[in-house]
């Protein structure tokens, strides 16, 4: 599966990690999947990890996703981990474009920076979640 979703119940931390080629369709699917799990699990924080993936997403898709209001995620601190320059630039565009509809969003280069930002000490105790393909 090109996206893996994990949850640490103690930290209330939801993480989605993309692998392989991350294109427009996968980003849209992954975003919808993360939102679905966030609505069910009510995390305090959501991390989207783009670093293992080869980023092939178009700017228009990023803008469209950023402009969609997600009131159920308002108040949740979200962090995008984007190691490559292209992914980092697109993630920053997402952060800036979605500032009014998304709120508490940050873009960092490493998972350690994400943990530091969220004040997480040590390695989270993630459990992999089963993704329903429907």
SSE layout:
Layout: E1 3-8, E2 13-18, E3 20-23, H1 24-41, E4 45-49, E5 53-56, H2 59-67, E6 77-81, H3 85-97, H4 99-102, E7 105-108, H5 111-117, E8 127-128
Parallel strand pairs: 2-4, 3-5, 4-6, 6-7
Antiparallel strand pairs: 1-2, 1-8
Helix pairs in contact: 2-3
Description:
With 134 residues, the protein is of the alpha/beta class. It contains 5 helices and 8 strands, in the order βββαββαβααβαβ. The chain has helices at 24-41, 59-67, 85-97, 99-102, 111-117, and strands at 3-8, 13-18, 20-23, 45-49, 53-56, 77-81, 105-108, 127-128. The protein has a 6-stranded mixed beta sheet. Helix 2 (59-67) packs parallel to helix 3 (85-97). The longest helix has 18 residues, at 24-41.
How many distinct beta strands? 8
Q: In sequence order, what are the helices and strands, one letter per element?
A: EEEHEEHEHHEHE
Count, helices? 5
The biggest sheet, with number of strands, parallel, antiparallel or mixed sense and barrel status, is: 6 strands, mixed
- Strand arrangement in the largest pleated sheet: 7-6-4-2-1-8
Q: What's the helical proportion of residues?
A: 25-40%
End-to-end separation in angstroms reads: 14 Å
Q: Low-confidence parts lasting 5 or more residues at pLDDT below 50?
A: none
């Amino acid at each position: 599966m090109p996206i893996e979703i994990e949850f640490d119940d103690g930290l209330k931390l939801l993480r989605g990690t993309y692998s392989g080629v991350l294109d427009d369709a996968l980003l849209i699917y992954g975003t919808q999947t993360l939102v679905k799990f966030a609505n069910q699990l009510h995390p305090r924080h959501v991390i989207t990890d783009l670093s293992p993936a080869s980023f092939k997403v178009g700017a228009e898709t990023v803008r469209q996703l950023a402009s969609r209001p997600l009131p159920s995620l308002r108040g949740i601190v979200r962090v995008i981990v984007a190691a490559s320059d292209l992914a980092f630039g697109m993630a920053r565009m997402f952060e800036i474009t979605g500032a009014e509809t998304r709120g508490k969003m940050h873009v960092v280069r490493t998972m350690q920076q994400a943990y530091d930002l969220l004040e997480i000490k040590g390695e989270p105790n993630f459990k992999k979640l089963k993704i329903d393909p429907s």
